[in-house]
Amino acid sequence: MIWWSSNPVTERKRVRTYQDLTAWQKAFDLRLDIYRVTKRFPKAEVYGLSTQMQRAAVSILSIIAEGFGRRTTADFLRLPYIACGSICEVQTQALPATKLCYLRAPEADRLLQLIGDTERLTKALIRALGSKRPCASAT
What we know:
Elements: E1 2-4, E2 13-15, H1 22-38, H2 49-68, H3 73-99, H4 105-130
Antiparallel strand pairs: 1-2
Helix pairs in contact: 1-2, 1-4, 2-3, 3-4
């Protein structure tokens, strides 16, 4: 059983599926936004920047869901770390897309904010899972 809360002081809700994870919900929003903005990228980027951003965004979402399906907390804990790598990948691809004017300034700002929010929530998930790991007993 995993417990997750965006604010542990005022709220504590039971997580029944990966869709209840706030990090997964934010990653879902990021994926939708990535698909929305890359749809307008130049045709020359169909197999370049747009595809790379889409794949990385899908990866974040999928990896968090996969982790939830793992048998142990320790197993789950490994996957959000991998998702953080994909978050950095999306951010790295968003920067040249902005510089090349594929993204308008407000779009780029919103996307970078969403990427940052996804990263913060994924790292919070890592901290929450880390606090649930049993301590090694001294023998």
